[in-house]
Amino acid sequence: MFRDLKLELKLGVFVFIGIIILVFLVFSISDLRSWQSGYTIFVRFGFLNGVKLGSPVRFRGVDVGEVKDIQIITEPIDKQSYVKVTCWIKNSIKIPEGSSVWVNTLGILGEKYLEIMPNPHTQTFIKPNAFLIGNDPVAMHEVQELARKIVSDIDVGLSRLKTQETTLGKLLYDDRLYKKLEGILDDLKELTQDLKAHPWKLLFVPKEKRK
Fold first, then answer.
1. Residues 6+ apart with CB under 8 A from 53
2. Which pLDDT tens digit goes with each residue over 7-18?
3. Dist. CA 49–CA 138, nearest whole Å
4. How far apart are CA 107 and CA 117, in angstroms?
5. What's the chain's Rg over C-alpha atoms?
6. What single-letter DSSP state applies at residue 125?
7. pTM here?
8. ∠ CA 57-63-68, rounded to 5°
9. DSSP label of 36
10. Chain-centre distance for alpha carbon 5
11. SS3 assignment for 49-106
């Protein structure tokens, strides 16, 4: 009997230690914030572009919190809608008033997260439950439209350049146009020299001949 009791005691201790290790792993993997204190802030966006619950919140490029809630709010007066993002921030992080918030991406096609860059022109920090205005990210269809416009502008520019090259080529390689242009320049040169030598002619030459 004593031997069985000793065996059960060892088994109980082993199970107890296993439960403690399991609880520790669950807390570590889920990244629960029960081990440290923090505060809540809100960020207002017109367009969020893929940020989800649990997305990281970074301050100066360092993880300092996470997205806890996302809501679409409709104003009761003007019926305008916006996205309200609730963020949990570590207590040790002080965010200056007027800081910039925008949606950033880990790599090209990586996870979306919120990036906070502090306002360097103030020494006043926001308080818990404060609102920040986020910078709306550019939607993909706007990027595509901009790309189409750039390509279109390049095509138009190339067409105009080709036309100008053709016109310039005619002036350079067409003998008749070249000779006419040369004759006009010679006449202007003679007229200029004549007027320098006899400026009084402007007073007596009839208007018909001046033309």
1. 67, 68, 69, 70
2. 666 677 777 788
3. 8
4. 18
5. 38
6. B
7. 0.54
8. 35
9. S
10. 68
11. CCCCCCCEEEECCEEEEEEEEEEEEECCCCCCEEEEEEEEEECCCCCECCCEEEEEEC
